[in-house]
């Protein structure tokens, strides 16, 4: 008999749905709270001790496309991060991974050094969080390169490029060719974005008495929906209703 099997015959039928896939909605949580009053308390000191083993040096990861093997992720983190050791990888449910480095500096470098692509799949990566419940919380922070095509020459100062890119997300760096003005077809900027919110397709730039539209081109995105401007699914399977402008 599987763990919990003996309880299922007495559980409300609509609760079985979330126990079978480890997900629970806010409505189902409220129903549980109305039916069960018992609470298990864990001592704050024990929690502080347990969290100290994870918080300073760990990240949580999920693929924004197909799932990739955990050992592939570990190899990529070591190779691209130029680490002298193998990171610890802990396989979670629903395709999530927790990765622990040996130092906070290595963890912070991994967060800043994206984009992380493994087997062609873009990874979302965030600092480890306490009380992170799989199926309720998610990992949505990712780093991507964006291009600013046909950017007028007077905007090719680093500060101006970063200001424009800030409309897409948190700018982290410009690439070498952009900084050295070697290729002027487009400026290239590394930005941090939220993978579950609408992507900005561009921004207006004010120039004296007029303004012009500057498009953003995102590199190496997984499936992109042109209906809701989110990544992770195609327009044919979109479940989001969008009203008004999405740019």
TrEMBL record:
InterPro entries: At4g02000-like, DUF4283, Zn_knuckle_CX2CX4HX4C. Residues 210-239 form the Zinc knuckle CX2CX4HX4C domain. Residues 75-133 form the DUF4283 domain. It holds the Pfam family DUF4283. This is Uncharacterized protein LOC103701669. It comes from Phoenix dactylifera.
């Amino acid at each position: 008999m599987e763990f919990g099997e003996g309880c299922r015959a007495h559980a409300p039928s609509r609760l079985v749905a979330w126990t079978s896939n480890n997900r629970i909605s806010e409505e189902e949580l409220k129903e549980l709270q109305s039916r069960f009053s018992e609470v298990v308390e864990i001592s704050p000191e024990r929690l502080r001790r347990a969290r100290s083993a994870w918080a300073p040096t760990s990240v949580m990861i999920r693929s924004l496309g197909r799932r990739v093997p955990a050992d592939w992720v570990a190899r990529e983190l070591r190779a691209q991060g130029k680490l002298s050791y193998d990171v610890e990888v802990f396989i979670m449910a629903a395709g999530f991974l927790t990765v622990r480095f040996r130092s906070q500096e290595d963890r912070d470098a991994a967060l800043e050094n994206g984009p992380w692509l493994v087997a062609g799949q873009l990874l979302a990566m965030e600092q480890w969080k306490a009380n992170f419940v799989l199926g309720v919380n998610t990992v949505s922070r990712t780093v991507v390169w964006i291009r600013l095509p046909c950017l007028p020459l007077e905007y090719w100062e680093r500060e101006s490029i970063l200001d424009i890119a800030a409309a897409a997300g948190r700018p982290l760096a410009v690439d070498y060719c952009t900084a050295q003005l070697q290729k002027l077809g487009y400026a290239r900027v590394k930005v941090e974005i939220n993978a579950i919110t609408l992507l900005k397709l561009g921004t207006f730039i004010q120039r004296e008495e007029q303004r012009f539209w500057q498009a953003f081109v995102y590199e190496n995105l997984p499936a992109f929906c042109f209906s809701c401007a989110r990544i992770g699914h195609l327009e044919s399977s979109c479940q989001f209703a969008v009203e008004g402008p999405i740019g």
